[in-house]
Amino acid sequence: MNELRELYQEMIIEHGRHPRNFCVLENASCKQEGFNPLCGDHLILFLIEKNGVIENISFQGSGCAISMASASLMTDAVKNKSIKEAEKLFQQFHLLITENKSEENLGKLAVLAGVSEFPARVKCATLAWHTLKAALQNETQTVSTE
Amino acid sequence: MNELRELYQEMIIEHGRHPRNFCVLENASCKQEGFNPLCGDHLILFLIEKNGVIENISFQGSGCAISMASASLMTDAVKNKSIKEAEKLFQQFHLLITENKSEENLGKLAVLAGVSEFPARVKCATLAWHTLKAALQNETQTVSTE
Amino acid sequence: MNVRKDFPILEKIIYLDSGATTQKPRCVIDAIQKFYLEDNANIHRGVYELSQRATKKFEHVREQVKNFIHAEHSHEIIFTRGTTESINLVAQCLSHNHIQKDDEILISAMEHHSNIVPWQLIAEKIGAKIKVIPITDLGEIELESFRKLFTAKTKMVAVTHVSNVLGTVNPIKEMIRIAHENNVPVLVDGAQAVPHLSVNVTELDCDFYAFSSHKMYGPTGVGVLYGKTEWLKKMPPYQGGGDMIERVSFEKTTYNKLPYKFEAGTPDISNVIGLGVAIDYLNQIGMHAITEHEKKLLAIATEELKKIPELKIFGESENKIGVISFTLNDIHPHDIGTILDHENIAVRAGHHCAMPLMQRFNVPAMTRISFGIYNTEKDIENLIKGLKIVHEVFHERIT
Amino acid sequence: MNVRKDFPILEKIIYLDSGATTQKPRCVIDAIQKFYLEDNANIHRGVYELSQRATKKFEHVREQVKNFIHAEHSHEIIFTRGTTESINLVAQCLSHNHIQKDDEILISAMEHHSNIVPWQLIAEKIGAKIKVIPITDLGEIELESFRKLFTAKTKMVAVTHVSNVLGTVNPIKEMIRIAHENNVPVLVDGAQAVPHLSVNVTELDCDFYAFSSHKMYGPTGVGVLYGKTEWLKKMPPYQGGGDMIERVSFEKTTYNKLPYKFEAGTPDISNVIGLGVAIDYLNQIGMHAITEHEKKLLAIATEELKKIPELKIFGESENKIGVISFTLNDIHPHDIGTILDHENIAVRAGHHCAMPLMQRFNVPAMTRISFGIYNTEKDIENLIKGLKIVHEVFHERIT
Ligand SMILES: Cc1ncc(COP(=O)(O)O)c(C=O)c1O
Ligand SMILES: Cc1ncc(COP(=O)(O)O)c(C=O)c1O
Predict the structure, then answer these.
(1) Of C47, C245, C246, Cβ closest to residue B120
(2) What is the pLDDT of residue C88?
(3) Which of B29, B53, B69, C83 has a CA that sits 20 to 30 A from residue D66's CA?
(4) For residue D9, which of D22, D1, D19 has the smallest C-alpha distance?
């Protein structure tokens, strides 16, 4: 039960149910789809990027609590960050959820540390991030974490 | 070694090397092909049948000693026999080479009794017989014992 | 049903995912080992005794399969890799001449991807159309609609015997009758039927019947396609290679007789032998006893699950066997699966390879439990306890 | 090579038919058992730990195969049923757009039926032509003729790495170079190479490479197709079903990425895991040591067999590995096989699934011995003794 409580913290369930930045950005400079065929998690990321900075970001979609909370927390975390910073954040985040290591203060993202005990859920927690990465690299295909 | 000598009796090797009735019958009323894809044994049976009697029979082909000897011995055995008699002979012969039982005097065919110790070779010993049966039933396809 | 001792793995897990693949009884596992230790040789080729013995054992399984599904001839039993390959084989071979441009293929709204995509692939290639047989909210085929779907262009019906999501046992005998009145052949996807029901292809009068060894307590890597002789004869060969030929030359190649025409290359010999042992095992228990056992579990589980508020079951046909798919409030099945797994309970969460069916019921995913011969009431109790923990984690209490 | 203890079956038989299928080491047999006892679950689907573990082990084998044949990416490794299916997959997928009416496919005169019939099937269907690369009396590809066979219509070369009858190791690197100069892709049938030689597909630069687990000390039911990413991306999907799709709807289905696009349905999970253990086993012995061991046996056996009067060996290339096919006077190979079997020696007799090659050498059948890592000089001694008995039975004495 402890590991479960670690994974499904209040904040995750809350963000999962009421995700932040959950809307369409009409004037998005970039739109990217992400998909996890295993469990059907699906999201579309909207992005306004200017001079290497993520000026605004939002998403829509459906999926498990982990994937929705992660997308919600990510959009909060990378807003107004530079692309470089966002990429670094992803690296740090990845380390956190796979090895439960964190070298820096990840802020609210740290609530997802419990994922490290559930390797099967890493894909859920990273779907939004992989989609962001693809968006920043201007890929055209749907991103898949399968 | 004993079982081998039983199988490869003088007469079999001799018939295998110098098969009887090994020729084309120009005026055959029926021609039937037989094939064993496993070992490549192959023969063509020529037949003159009149009023239910096998008036003449011959074959050509190539294959192992058992299949050639069996074809040679069969053609000798069924010549001038009625179709009914030939069919009965096949039944008896089959019993001999599968269970080493013989209810009747099979004449020279009895030298193939050793096949009963080599189930893998039953197909070789019966190829000619199956081909004959098909010929008498007027089948058009190549007979296969595979 | 006193079989748990035959499945050592069940000491470690509460396994409620037999619909995905069943666990294997000790006798099947042992048979594979014994084959490799004592009988291993390639088949249909060697003149030596070892190979003959392997061939005999392999071909004996064909007989066993024939008897198990009550087919008329063992040459109507073709070994494939699984249900998926069996269906692809039929789709591909029929696309050579039977199904042509503008022709129509009927499949139901509850099919597994394995009985959708093969038809889509050939339909796209030759310009044929797929038409969907609708289902009711209870999860049953709409028979009247089915009847009306036939036109002069209808060339194939492909339908599942038992739904892997809804558990519905479809009225395939009736459906086959209707199709045959319209001169249309029927392929039945029996993947979820053969492990649970006594199947009689002769009585059903189906033209093709497909299923997988790994879902019926046998090893992976083996499936079966049953096909009526007349169809198998009409169909062109499937793949080229060893065994499926009679004679090969660069000028002209002739094909082997049934069933070998459809079995190119070395088959999965050891696992076919394992399937034979699985069939013996099932016969020993008796398919009738299995059906009854699983029906009982279904009734108990359905009753218990219905007590949970906000739990919605999909598939409520009267003719239903051991599968229950459900959603629980707005909790995503993936989260339910993780929490149950943490309690050592294996269930399936997702689209169950039936995305169009998810669309039909307008949910992205479901949680599914499915029963096998080894499940018990205790497993259901544990499941219910597990679902209470799901609620707790998500801050809701089951009353 | 001290490996016989790993193969209990060899206590009972002198096995000289590894070209048909190899025996399996204990570790491979045990791994299959262990999988079913501890890890059995369907893969790529379950969210629970058991399924995740099975998936991980399965995908790990893909890595192992990649490393074993020195491919660049593990997504270039596709699991099939065997060499035969691998070749059929390529032939079928390329017949959709790459190979068209009147195009030409080059195959050699020494191909196994598995690398002839799949091309004949598609050639017949689309109206393409098969052209045959001739071989010399020694059993070697005529490279100059090969070069001259290319025309603007040539769309495919399919050639075996090692002949299953002649033992010839073909100059495929050179052949691939020539084909690529002509912008033609090459499929290599590696069924008889992978168990005996260290294979490097990157260095060879082949476009496709096919082989079977059961011929390399692994279980039956599994094969591999290596394909270059660019080709695999260009090719349409092979079969439809679970796993190979991304999203399915009745309107539009999108396919999964590589390699899953080509792997529909539940694969032969337990045997893929067995293949992984076989690769570990081979790596432990070392492919170089294996090649050397078998070359030594080949030299000894060739010398001994040549002492037998009227024995004629087919295939006398300098580049040859552990296979010897021969005829003995006018004694039919089938009779030789039976007599040797009676002495407990398993050899192959027949056309070896290479009828056109039999025609080339104008014999209906041959007797073949083929070596594996477990064979010894003693096996060769026994073979020679057995052949003396053959002579005795047929009333001839070997001097
Ligand atoms: C109804 C149904 N059809 C087909 C399949 C596919 O079976 P396999 O993956 O063994 O080919 C399944 C199993 O997932 C199934 O439940
Ligand atoms: C050269 C060659 N290619 C292809 C095959 C066919 O392999 P499989 O039967 O495993 O598909 C064989 C084995 O018989 C072979 O020797």
Answers:
(1) C47
(2) 98
(3) C83
(4) D22
